[in-house]
Hints:
By secondary structure, the chain is an alpha/beta fold. Helix content is 45%, strand content 17%.
Amino acid sequence: MVLQVQTSTYEAKTQEIAKQLLAATQENRSFFSSLRDQMRWDDKLLAWAMSNPGLRVQLFRFIDTLPALHSKSEIASHLQEYLGDESVELPSALKGMLNFANPDSMPGQVAATTVETAVETLAHKYISGENIKQVIKTVERLRKEKMAFTIDLLGEAVITEAEAQSYLERYLELMQQLVEASKNWSAIPAIDEADGEAIPKVQVSVKLTAFYSQFDPLDAKGSEERVSDRIRILLRRAKELGAAVHFDMEQYAYKDITLSILKKLLLEEEFRQRTDIGITVQAYLRDSEQDTKNLISWLKERGYPLTIRLVKGAYWDQETIKAAQKHWSQPVYNDKAATDANFETITQLLLENHQYVYSAIGSHNVRSHSRAIAIAESLNIPRRRFELQVLYGMGDKVAKALVDKGYRVRVYCPYGELLPGMAYLIRRLLENTANSSFLRQNLENRPIEELLAPPIVKEEKNSLTPNSSLLTPNSHFSGAADTDYAEEEVRTKATQAFQSVRQQLGKTYLPLINGEYVNPPEFVDSLNPSNFSEVVGKVGLISIEQAEQAMQAAKAAFPGWRKTPAKQRADILRKAGDLMELRRAELSAWIVLEVGKPVKEADGEVSEAIDFCRYYADEIERLDKGVNYDIPGETNHYIYQPRGIAVVISPWNFPLAIACGMTVAALVSGNCTLLKPAETSSVIAAKLTEILVDAGFPKGVFQYVPGKGSQVGAYLVNHPDTHVIAFTGSQEVGCRIYAEAAILKPGQKHMKRVIAEMGGKNAIIVDESADLDQAVVGVVQSAFGYSGQKCSAASRVIVLQPIYDAFVQRLVEATKSLNIGEAELPSTQVGPVIDANARDRIREYIEKGKAEAQLALELPASEQGYFIGPVIFSEVSPNAVISQEEIFGPVLAVIRVKDFQEALAVANGTNYALTGGLYSRTPSHIQQAQTEFEVGNFYINRNITGAIVGRQPFGGFKLSGVGSKAGGPDYLLQFLEPRAVTENIQRQGFAPIEGAD
């Protein structure tokens, strides 16, 4: 069904104005200017990108890489690698230019120079200057054309507090210099005044997140405090200078907190009467109309108008992909027409409330501008309360036509070095070359009726469900969605869960044997590692006799459980997953308090546990069908049966997810299962036990048997009735289990199957083409997330010589900016380590590191819990102890190498092969590493932790482990015995033949 946007009273006027504007923008250009454009390489590149989608993707990827390339031969070889790709059909001119044998050759150098110059020319089209001097020249030229301006500072992503402070200082300097220059500008009534009121000549546009490097909606209060301090300084200085400040809107995750901070700040006595400040609304967001209504209500209460800049929005691809990956609702409209229609609705809303709000309508679509003008003229809106905006280099002709018609036009002018400006450039290029772009359609001389038609909105089905069409067709499994802490009610729920869990601290948890909670001979306190004086729970540890009772109970329950249909077992698992989803906030809180894992990471772990339940339920139903290999006269059926009794020995670092994954895999495969969790995380295992019992696992089928690893663990591993041992933990213990399981015990009639995940010494390679913003953030997350206590954590980063020093400098600054504190605090990125033993062992490694490398950073940490601040060593030898041994703490070794070949050799030079990563924009490096980097999970241009069930099945080889990957299609096979059943179906020479009459 198609809904025609209501044709309103403004439509006839919109059409009339739009046709006049369009005519003005389409006037014939002179023969010489069109000839000059045909000869320019920057125009050729854009034209080719529009006509060839494969070339568009590769060309933009090359442009993204260009800032990292420091020589002509590097540029030439990357040109060939990107544009020589099979997916790209090259225009003959480009093909000829790329036809060089050697990047160092003269033709290679010419190609590099030509393309580099073309990209620089393109960048200068959209970026108003590389320094303040150039910007002042640009804005003076704009003012001569009767256009106002707002300046936006381009730059690297703000990932360190030093960069956040620098961002503020650069804006203070920018305002100072612009205001100084403006003293020599003559007044231009069209833009400097309206309705007898002076309008600031200087305006700057700023991004809120750039004022604090750890800006995070989860830590709404902390982010607000840090950001507001810097904004107040900016606004005070702007007032002294007489400059206006506008706040841009960024990614959706930051929208609500950005609006909340600004609303609060701009009601403060000092700022309440200011009218020289602006806020932005993005029309591609589904909730932007409601946001606008809320802002108008707030402005009525405030009593003084502010500007609201209305834009379509610049992060559509990013928002769509993120929502699909996270299984979240789509925040943006999927259809451009829906965005255009919403833009017109909000335009009308703003202009009809002109007594409370100054409207700034930002677009390059002639219809959008005409609509605004039609409404403004119909309502006789005063000139001060309405202006039109365009991006520098995007809507030049439209802007000129609007000025000629007497409207105030403001040009949004980004400035900064071209190098960090490439991300901005690519957003502009994507916008210009998209099929749905007004500018492109206008260039292609589409019929005027088509260009100016009201947007027709296709009714969207389930618009608020995740966009599954973006997920690959073979990914039938859709995981649980992590909590989106950008939503205030979710943060409130998390706070309430902590309050509820805190009231239950110190309770006693008994082992579960044969369906009964039993009294053990010994109890141990499980402590909160953030504050070791706090007892999370008292855990009962079973004796050897009780371990034997559990074994006998499992043995007795097995015949019944193995006969339980796979569908029934799978449904119990799905119910367990649903119960976890219901208890998500509470389970997260237990994880935070018992093992010191920060809130977001604890929430991700609950998702993983839920995913294991649902994924393995699907998998057993698939495997239960078996495979038929029938031939005429004979049936051949390949089927699976359970092995028997499984012993699960789970770690403390993923106390819910890994314990759950190994346990439910064994259970759903028809095995009776004993769960022996790590002593330091037995309370969470008790919570998992409650869920599995509530879900319906029968007595004796699942048993919770906490105990000392050296006694109970060893007894169960060596027991003759144990069929499968699933273990996650240290290499030392894993190898011992593997050896002991291989010994045939008296009365044992089977070989034991061992599945062991035993850690890693994981490396990330950063080559000279890497995006350093991305690489630094990814390395910090991979190395210091959960204080480096993940088997997948990065403990080595291998950096190529040309960028080594720059990388280490930014890495150190970014790490310095992390918040270290109690895991429960929403601001915490680095919490405690698990216990005193771990803390002391890590400290010993730090001392070894100081003896064999340079200490680049050692952050102090509180003594109230088991805290260790992040430590970075530079100039580390590949063979140093800290490069070779698993530390399992927040300690990172940065190794310098001369070339990519050496980087791979160093990466592969340990006994482990679990996870590894590469930050690179060189296609040949990416391809080579995929083949030669010896790891079970290899990640390119992203962090190396956080594997997702059914998406990145997890596990390694060499001494990182034995067995198939968890969360993958082979995992359940380890808990099953395959059988083949053959039947001769001929009787007296007769057999049914399919298809025969």
